[in-house]
Amino acid sequence: MPELPEVETTLRGLTPYLLGQSIVEVTIRNAHLRWPIPAELPELLRGKTVQTMTRRAKYLLFKFEHGTLLIHLGMSGSLRLLTEYQPADKHDHFELLLQNGNRMRLRDPRRFGSVLWQVEGATHPLLSRLGAEPLQATFTAEQLYQAAQRCRRAIKILLMENKVVVGVGNIYANEALFRSGIAPFCPANQLGVAQCEKLVREIKNTLTEAIAQGGSSLRDYVNSDGKQGYFQQNYSVYGREGQPCRRCATPIKMLRQGQRASFYCPHCQQ
DNA sequence: AGAACCACCTGGCAGC
DNA sequence: TGCTGCCAGGTGGTTC
């Protein structure tokens, strides 16, 4: 479910409700996510106040005075804010009860997500080797070009690796490549500077537009405020195999790269 | 070092 | 209706 726009939308939706609140109670219903939820979290967080809420790649960071709670939504995770009690679903694994009575509840059917603790002053190993944030000025065409020159694999694989740039998942890799006129199977080291400039611009544009529209939704995605997103209706190529390209009407093709589906227009993308 | 593949999990859907 | 097989938004770890 969550690509970067969903994570960003979740962050923005939750921040007004959590910032400055202190934690009354932490409930771990199922600690068995991708990595175990630290058993000491309830003890660590009880009585502590959320000082800042930020995002790094697809990790949500809730900073406290003595450390940071990291939450990753994996493939199927969602965070919701409950203003009144609701019985927990079988996939509701983790929950914070706030001083004002609100609850932030993590639901994650596939349990690929994670809830982790980072002690103040340290950098969690999972955050230590991440590439540039796609929406910040530190992600540049020059940087992508340099990395691409050293990579013989397909450009789409490189984009999704989180080494050069983070937060570009399967949907937005496909969409940004379409908008750049670059085929997903093009070897990274064959891209010119101009193509890298276009690609960086379109990654930023695609993500920015998606965030502006409230994040895309597929099936079970629910925003933190409970409303459905709607960006999925606007995909140019993702999930559109056999349907006409919106630009030239050529049927969209699908192929598999690294066990992920790639969609592209054989006419618009070379 | 770089590249390819595997693993973790449940639910939804197509096809029989 | 029910079973089987396949697919899915992520990404760290292992193996070659």
Account of the protein in words:
This protein has 270 residues and is α+β, with helices and mostly antiparallel strands. 26% of the residues lie in helices and 21% in strands. It has helices spanning 4-18, 41-45, 125-128, 141-149, 155-159, 170-180, 193-212; strands at residues 23-28, 52-56, 59-64, 67-72, 78-82, 92-98, 103-107, 114-119, 253-257, 260-264. Strand 9 (253-257) and strand 10 (260-264) form a beta hairpin. The two termini are 29 Å apart. Residues 216-230 have low confidence and may be disordered. The protein binds a DNA duplex (16 and 16 nucleotides) through loops.
Quick structural summary:
By secondary structure, the chain is α+β, with helices and mostly antiparallel strands. The protein has 7 helices and 10 strands.
Count the E strands: 10
What's the arrangement of strands in the largest beta sheet? 1-6-7-5
H/I helix tally? 7
Mean pLDDT: 91
Order of helices and strands: HEHEEEEEEEHHHHHEE
Termini Cα gap:
29 Å
Which strand-content bin applies to the residues? 15-25%
What structural class should be given to the helix and strand makeup? alpha+beta
Structural Rg = 20 Å
Helical residue percent?
25-40%
- Biggest sheet, in brief? 4 strands, antiparallel
What gross morphology would you assign? elongated
- Runs in which pLDDT lies below 50 for 5 or more consecutive residues are 216-230
